[in-house]
UniProtKB/TrEMBL annotation:
Keywords: ATP-binding, Nucleotide-binding, Transport
Keyword NADP among UniProt keywords: no
Protein name, entry field: ABC transporter related protein
Family matches, as PROSITE patterns: ABC_TRANSPORTER_2
Residue intervals of the ABC transporter domain: 2-227
Species: Ethanoligenens harbinense (strain DSM 18485 / JCM 12961 / CGMCC 1.5033 / YUAN-3)
Alphabetized GO MF terms: ATP binding; ATP hydrolysis activity
Keyword Nucleotide-binding: yes
SMART domains, per the entry: AAA
């Protein structure tokens, strides 16, 4: 279990993450998302004990992680730019990590290496970008950590390998009761993978709850009206991600269907259809009202 208690991390005068609280239970796959610079990587490195918190603390299984080597031997951080020893092979890197992680499994190493179709005797510097990522995942999973921290784990993987990795992570979290935290920009991959979601905006948690709670907090609708209803008229109702479609309008909003009918019926609502809301739509709602300066580019 990972617990954040009023966690704050700064770089000089810059606050990377501020006053974060939350608990991630054993067996949970937790998705961590945010725009570039939001503080995702900083949070992962602080959970791993690489960085020391400036305020608050990180507890892993009830103990402070920072400068706790015993706890760190059960935590694996797979960074976006994982380091491999120069000229090393995957087999040589396995020997390196085997000496640090007491729960290392040679069986897991061999099986996942085979699943990813990697040559353990080949030099890693000859691997492609996607193969580098797979090599890192092999080492991370073979270490059998109780806390697995992944920064852009799906980056560079083809569709087949992304699906394979998602299946492996689900199996690992379930079988080992491990905490798996996945920071990613690939929201479509996370949507069918994670149990809980943390969205960092302006260095604090904008949302930190289960996927089911996310879906309860907002709903997506498609609505049709008479010919006189315009996008501008609906815009006055403060609906999120409001868009004109061929046969009506789509939007996100709070409240149940009865409450939506109460708001829209006076405008001559003829059809109201509830639709699945995607994680990408929920995430992009944060940028509502922020316009990009997309003029005079060239």
């Amino acid at each position: 279990m990972v617990t954040l208690e009023h966690l704050t991390k700064k770089y000089a005068d810059f606050t990377a993450v501020k006053n974060l609280d939350g608990t991630i239970e054993d067996g949970c796959i937790y998705g961590l998302v945010g725009f570039n610079g939001a503080g995702k990587t900083t949070l992962l490195k602080t959970i791993a004990g690489v960085y020391r918190a400036d305020a608050g603390r990180v507890l892993v299984n009830g103990e402070n992680i920072y400068e706790n080597e015993r706890l760190k031997s059960g935590v694996f951080l797979l960074s976006d730019d994982m380091y491999f020893l120069p000229q090393s092979t995957l087999k040589e890197m396995a020997k390196f990590y085997r000496g640090y992680y007491p729960a290392w499994s040679e069986k897991t190493f061999e099986k996942i290496t085979a699943l990813f179709e990697l040559d353990p005797a080949a030099r890693i510097n000859g691997y492609s970008k996607g193969m580098h990522r797979q090599a890192g995942m092999v080492l991370a999973l073979a270490a059998h950590p109780h806390t697995l921290l992944l920064d852009e784990a799906f980056d560079g993987l083809d569709l087949a390998k992304r699906r394979l990795l998602a299946r492996i992570l689900k199996e690992y979290a379930r079988e080992k009761g491990a905490v798996v935290i996945v920071a990613s920009h690939n929201l479509r991959e996370l949507e069918n993978l994670v149990d809980h979601l943390g969205i960092i905006k302006d260095h604090v948690f904008y949302f930190n709850d289960s996927i089911e709670a996310m879906k309860r907090s907002r709903s997506k609708y498609r609505a049709q009206f008479g010919p006189d209803v315009t996008l501008e008229a609906l815009g006055a109702l403060h609906l999120s991600l409001l868009a004109k479609e061929d046969d009506g309008f789509s939007f996100l909003c709070e409240g149940n269907e009865a409450a939506v009918h109460k708001t829209l019926d006076p405008l001559g609502l003829t059809v109201l259809e509830r639709m699945p809301m995607t994680l990408e739509e929920f995430f992009m709602e944060q940028r509502e009202g922020q316009e990009d300066a997309f003029t005079d580019l060239f």
